From TrEMBL:
Residues 61-96, 97-132 form the EF-hand domain. PROSITE patterns: EF_HAND_1, EF_HAND_2. This is Recoverin-visinin-Y. One of its GO terms (molecular function) is calcium ion binding. Keywords: Calcium, Lipoprotein, Metal-binding, Myristate, Repeat.
Length: 195
């Protein structure tokens, strides 16, 4: 183990992250210590990520969705999340800035990363989302969105797209911003009460 990285964050990484996120140097340093305790080799594997993610969805199967989320966070595509990717991911998904969230959502749906979304990609993500939704909750869905296929059809129509059309990032972001129904359909907000 001759090339163990030091436990301190490099100056470059701190500068990079304070510039690109809203976190302070102190927050990042504290966070990094915690991160190293959880991940001594300073990386999160896909399997580990899936395990962590699935704990939030004990009554359903979040594995497939977690794989897509992992891909969207693994920006250098090396099959692991390093500290930078982890912090940027948290920033994207929790900062509350709608534009950042939508850019991230676009990358989630753009499975092959070619810069546009096609209908098959929407269907794949919606199918993964459906697996996270407990069956009893699915039964309460409106009839025209109670299956992945129907929900995809509805979304695609909201975007005004034909079967073989593609959706650009600009169209995606504008569409979601301008139509609350689209925003509702592209995501899954877990219900908190299970009364
Ligand atoms: Ca990576
Ligand atoms: Ca694509």
């Amino acid at each position: 183990m001759g090339n163990n990285r030091s436990a301190a964050l490099s100056k470059e990484l701190i500068d990079d992250l304070t510039l690109n996120t809203e976190y302070s140097e102190q927050e990042l340093t504290d966070w990094y210590s915690a991160f190293l305790k959880q991940c001594p080799d300073s990386r999160i594997s896909r399997e580990r990520f899936e395990q962590i993610y699935s704990k939030f969805f004990p009554n359903a199967d979040a594995t497939r969705y977690a794989q897509h989320v992992f891909r969207s966070f693994d920006t250098n595509n090396d099959g692991t999340l390093d500290f930078r990717e982890y912090v940027v991911a948290l920033h994207l998904t929790s900062s509350g800035k709608i534009h950042l969230k939508l850019e991230w959502a676009f990358s989630l749906y753009d499975i092959d990363g070619n810069g546009t979304i096609n209908k098959a990609e929407v269907l794949e993500i919606i199918t993964a989302i459906f697996r996270m939704i407990p069956p009893e909750e699915q039964r309460s869905f409106p009839e025209d969105e109670d299956s992945p296929e129907k929900r995809t059809e509805k979304l695609w129509n909201f975007f005004g797209k034909k079967e073989n059309d593609n959706l650009t990032e600009g169209e995606f972001v504008e569409g979601v911003k301008n139509n609350i129904e689209i925003l509702r359909l592209i995501q899954y907000e877990k219900r908190h009460s299970h009364a």
